Amino acid sequence: MSQPRRTAAARPIPPAASGIVLAGGRARRFGGDKLGALVDGRPLLHRSVEAVAGVCREVLIVLAPDAPEPDLPVGLAVPLRFVRDPEPFGGPLVGIAAALAQAREPVALVAGGDMPWLEYDVLALLVRELEASGCELAALVSGDRPEQLPIAVRVAAAREAAERLVGAGERRITVLLRETRTRLVEEAAWRRFDRGGRSLQDVDRPSDLADGGPGERLR
After folding, report:
1. Cα gap 96→163, rounded to integer Å
2. Interacting residues of 127 by C-beta distance below 8 A, sequence separation 6+
3. Domain spans in the chain, listed from the N-terminal domain onward
4. Is 99 helix (H, G, I), strand (E, B) or coil?
């Protein structure tokens, strides 16, 4: 079981980081308004945004070009902004590149809008590990491989790499990890804050909400 989320009063001042929440996918496998689906009484997207907002000084929510603006949580201590994908359903790397171009802080924390079980301490650990390492990207290791989300990146370096890869026709986050100097946060380190590993779980189908099980992760 993961440890309980901290209250806002218990959290320190956020580091100089922008939050990026990817919410521009098709949600074909869900068969409806996935980001508006309720998790413990709150919209799925709200939970992702709130978790990222607890670690960052701003949050950018990436939407498809013509998607309506969803309702967002109110009362957060940081500003929320929408960013539009430059092409419809172009893939996660396109959305990341678009958001990095508008990020105001030197570091960015990237997560999926369909990841409602993100743990504050895991996200904060990612940012700390990135800042301490001097690398361009920090990722969580699960088993024998790095996970694609959530990740922390240095905005300037990651933007250059993402734009170059997108220009070459690439759309996968895995390639961004290969093309940047990456700090791998070992599983034993982040599992101290999230024993069940739910920070890695996304929602693809309604059954993922019904049983709390993991969805398929981006590859």
Report:
1. 9
2. 15, 17, 55, 107, 109, 138, 152
3. 14-205
4. helix
- Res. 2: pLDDT tops 70: no
Q: In one letter, which amino acid is 50? A: E
Nearest alpha-carbon partner for 24 in 92, 72, 76, 75: 92
Closest to 62 measured CA to CA, from 22, 110, 90, 12: 22
Architecture of domain 14-205: Alpha-Beta Complex (3.90)
Give the pairing type, strands 107-112 and 145-154. Answer: antiparallel
C-alpha 18 chain-centroid distance? 11
Q: What percentage of the chain has pLDDT greater than the value 90?
A: 70
pLDDT in tens, 151-169: 999 999 999 999 999 999 9
Q: Which residues of 102-137 are buried (b: 16+ CB within 10 A; e: fewer)?
A: bbebebbbbbbbbbbbbbbbbbbbbbebbbebebbb
What SS3 class is residue 88? Answer: coil
- Paired tokens of 150: 């959530």
Helix extents (H) in the chain:
44-53, 92-100, 120-133, 155-167, 173-179, 187-190, 206-211
Per the listing, tokens 């959305």 go with 95
